[in-house]
Amino acid sequence: MAVSVFNTRRRTSLVSAFMARTRMFISTPLPQVRDKVSRTKPPKPHGGGGERRRKKQPQEAAARAGGGMGGSSASPCDLDREFAPQIAQLLATPPLQPAQEYYNGLIQSRKHDGIRVNFSSKHGKGVCANKEFAEGDLILKDQILVGAQHSLNKIDCAVCSYCFRFIGSIEFQIGRRLYWQSVGSSSDCTNRRHCHESDVGSSASSSGATKENSSTLPEEVLGSLITGDMSLPFTDHFSLPQVVPCRGCEEERYCSQSCADSDWETYHSLLCTGSKTEPSQRSALQKFIEHANGSNDIFLVAAKAITFTLLRYKKLKTQPEFQNNTDESNFSLLMEAWKPLSMGYKKRWWDSVALPEDVDSCDEDTFRQQIRDLALTSLQLLKDAIFDSDGLVVASPVEDYFIHIDDLPDDEKEEAEKVTRPFLDALGEDYAAPCEGTAFFPLQSCMNHSCCPNAKAYKRDEDTDGNAVIIALEPIKKDDEITISYIDEDVSYEERQAELADYGFICTCPRCQEEKPN
Ligand SMILES: C[S@@+](CC[C@H](N)C(=O)[O-])C[C@H]1O[C@@H](n2cnc3c(N)ncnc32)[C@H](O)[C@@H]1O
């Protein structure tokens, strides 16, 4: 499936006093981010290591992508053999006409009449302009089809599990982050990932003791921030939606009842580990989640893709025209339910993951076999949990808040900073972590790359949820192809081609043709 890594825009105009004090700079990997532009990377397979160190044995790299090779009860080959015809149909490239009809329908239903999806023999799907766009025009706001916040990022920020908007209050965001930070300094990362959200307020507010090596702020202060008993100055300028808990578990929280209901209907009713779920299913789900947390977040997104399909299938089945219960008609219904995802499907995960730089190419087959085994283990755990009973960009309002304090007139600033400075100091250099996750955007994932793009993913101040936003970088004429850059295009021809090799193509855009050495 085509997935994108999403993260929130990061503004680099740091609170000046904070910068002066720490002499640190929050790294901005991409120059465009400086003007609040964020690049939403289109499908680059997840799971290879970004680390560039000594060459590792493939099993080490796979374990890092995967956290150990758990034993699975069936080999992928058994499953492939048993369901070969069905798997081939599910994974086949959708025929042109149904695919064109699907995208026309999607664009119409979302009222994106400025674009259309075209099919060409050169680069497959591509997005074209259906009208003229001026520089700076919004081309598209693409709603996530399936996505999840990265597990570790859940420690940094609390967002709606459905639309990825920041929730609660500035106090809640700062308090829970500092709380997790203090827990993190007294335990390891894996434990932090398994800490329960419900522990946050209660433990911090009840224990009253400051943990060793934790932030310098007492736990009762953090507790008061989380529970809302303590207010910071000027936070009323940055109000966030109230937290709506999941009806079942304490893991998922939302910005509204409508997001909670949509999440439940679309994915979460099959993945909820709360009291409404039958105990054996709950413990099977917990095993699956633990495996994903210890290995690769991509399995959580895969689980959402599977539950999305199953729940759509169930819904379709209730319609009178689909009451015929033959295996054949059930399978066509499953194909229909899977259709939105099949449109973006390219290759299996283990075949498309970019080979980590620290794995020798002669070990590639072993590496791919190992991550394939890992995916099978994950699937088996998910299957145990759900079959027996039947990817983003959001800026942190905490950053806006501290910038607001820094921009206050001197006397007000001095007064406000008496309260806010200890929190800024305790949060540290990365004081405004954005929401990060992995998601599949059905329309953005049809956009081809160019090293001289005419559009880019860009979060404006009003774009506070996880949707991908595409803005025109220059005037675009009707029928022009809309292109974005998958990489940092401000580097040499050779570096660009090396980066794009991970996406599986050699770029021949006008700029590359011009800069290509003879
Ligand atoms: C996000 S998808 C774009 C939509 C894609 N064309 C399709 O048919 O689904 C990314 C893939 O499109 C192809 N692609 C995108 N830009 C390209 C380019 N400039 N040259 C060649 N292939 C490109 C590559 O196969 C790449 O992995």
Automatic annotation (TrEMBL):
One GO CC annotation, please?
Answer: nucleus
The GO molecular function terms of this record are: histone H3K36 methyltransferase activity; zinc ion binding
Region of interest called Disordered, as start-end residue ranges on this chain = 29-75, 197-217
Record keywords: Metal-binding, Zinc, Zinc-finger
Every copy of the MYND-type domain together lies at 246-272
Note one Pfam family from the annotation. zf-MYND
List where Low complexity composition bias occurs: 200-216
Question: Which residues are in the SET domain?
Answer: 113-487
Q: Which GO terms describe its biological process?
A: callus formation; epigenetic regulation of gene expression; lateral root formation; root regeneration
| CDD domains registered for this protein in UniProt | SET_SMYD (cd20071)
Q: Which PROSITE patterns match?
A: SET, ZF_MYND_2
- Tell me the domain of life: Eukaryota
Give the protein's recorded name. Answer: SET domain-containing protein
